[in-house]
Amino acid sequence: MICGVDEAGRGPLAGPVVAAAVILDPGRPVAGVTDSKKLSPRMRQQLAAAIRQRALAWAVAEASVEEVDRLNILRATMLAMKRAIEALSLRPVEVLVDGNRCPEIDLPVRAIIGGDATEPVISAASILAKTHRDASMLQLHATYPQYGFDRHMGYGTAVHLDALRRHGPAPCHRRSFGPVRQLLE
Prior knowledge:
Elements: E1 2-8, E2 17-23, H1 41-54, E3 57-63, H2 65-71, H3 73-87, E4 94-98, E5 109-112, H4 115-118, H5 120-143, H6 149-152, H7 158-167, H8 178-184
Parallel strand pairs: 1-4, 4-5
Antiparallel strand pairs: 1-2, 2-3
């Protein structure tokens, strides 16, 4: 059983970094699985539901804003990935990770650059991580509507940067990220 792992939310100025781990069932494939960035939000939602239903095992985990600020974004991402892998109900024989870095785990693990577009098991993880993070950003939008998280999901868009200047950072903002840190200085 091969597990795919991917993350969502390394670049944004707000919210957690999210990782998902998925073990697909070869007998129950999910058609249309590809890199989450190539899919519409509606298609991502549909595929996420199918993945959760058909996968042999899946898990989603986060590293909090506080962990991102304390550890740095790379270490926080690796922590979220490790948590997702450890939360699986089945133990994989190998882990495939999108990117060029691997979390420190006691399993064979391989990094694959662009793996979210070439390995269905990583694509599935990409979709679960993205849909979970988007849902958490919509929850933050309900609490902090002045930032427009429902439109930019925490990324440093012009709208978000303008809202940061007008309202200052909220507790969900990553203080270690340049635009937020500059406002606090």
